[in-house]
Write a structure and sequence with these properties.
mainly alpha; 14 helices
């Protein structure tokens, strides 16, 4: 069951990436990010209020948000710090790079998770899983060569380093999620609500220093409906992902790889919507990544 939940998470993540590209294109990144996380927080807020005043009903529908000790709040705040940094880097990169370049680099995330799963959680890969992960990494290298034809130098472009940093931090957060869900026994909705709450606070501090006081930057911001869509789709993806992690048999390295199947939506549909170049050539490394994911699932 946890693999199917992972595929549902991948579906919502793929749609989330398409909306995110539209939301940040030619727009101010920080207020867009605050809008997306804030939308997710507002989506979960009724469940928090319901948990305080109508606990029986929220428990019945499966969205009761538990009361947690301050120490657990500290652990969730650490996740918020990690992901806020990752999203800031990723949104800046997505603003300046084609989605068909950003998404494949993000697909290298399972490799970092893979190493962490071996070292931290002692998850043991088999031969086919090794082949699958190296296929994913090799395919990302092929994307880097295609990217040069779009005027993107992978050695000198700072946004490439930004998306690599975002990918590493995102993978670290994925490993941390297993600790939060399984070791601290947090329910998906409890983790999601407090994570959004602390991330909104962090972003408000950043915007207070960099955006609210800058009239010129405020004029550059454009509100788009996709900002709200990104927040809702992200919460849907996270919910199914965390539900999958609740299964004691779930392997974080396989879940991370399954989530990469979102690339099919981002590269094929996104390439058509945003009319990006070299779509046919990008199908070759895309096939390599999908084959790598297939080998991991098959094994």
């Amino acid at each position: 069951m946890w693999m199917y939940l992972g595929l549902l998470a991948a579906l919502f993540l793929g749609l989330h990436n398409l909306c995110k590209k539209h939301a940040v294109q030619g727009n101010e990144v920080f207020p867009v990010l605050l809008g997306t996380i804030g939308s997710g927080f507002l989506l979960l807020l009724p469940f928090f209020i319901g948990s305080q005043y109508y606990p029986d009903f929220t428990k019945q529908i499966g969205f009761y948000i538990d009361s947690i000790p301050w120490q657990t709040h500290g652990f969730i705040f650490i996740k918020s710090m990690i992901m806020a940094t990752s999203w800031i880097l990723a949104y800046q990169a997505l603003k300046h790079l084609p989605i068909t370049i950003v998404t494949p680099i993000r697909s290298a995330g399972p490799f970092f998770t893979f190493i962490g799963a071996i070292l931290i959680y002692q998850e043991r890969p088999n031969f086919l899983q090794w082949i699958g992960f190296f296929l994913i990494i090799f395919s990302v290298v092929l994307y880097s060569r295609i990217g040069k034809k779009e005027g993107i130098n992978f050695k000198r472009n700072k946004w490439i380093f930004a998306i690599i940093g975002a990918t590493f931090l995102g993978a670290s957060s994925g490993l941390y999620d297993k600790f939060l869900i399984q070791n601290l026994s947090l329910t998906p909705q409890t983790l999601q609500f407090w994570f959004c709450f602390y991330t909104v606070l962090i972003l408000l501090v950043i915007l207070s220093l960099t955006w609210f006081t800058n009239a010129e930057k405020r004029k550059k911001f454009t509100w788009r409906w996709t900002i709200v869509a990104v927040g809702i789709l992200l919460q849907a993806a996270d919910y199914f992902y965390f539900k999958a992690l609740q299964d004691p048999e779930a392997l974080i390295m396989l879940l991370s790889a399954i989530k990469r199947s979102q690339i099919l939506i981002a590269v094929v549909i996104g390439g058509l919507i945003f009319k990006e170049k070299n779509k046919r050539k990008k199908l070759i490394p895309l096939f390599g990544i999908m084959l790598g994911v297939f080998l991991i699932l098959y094994s």
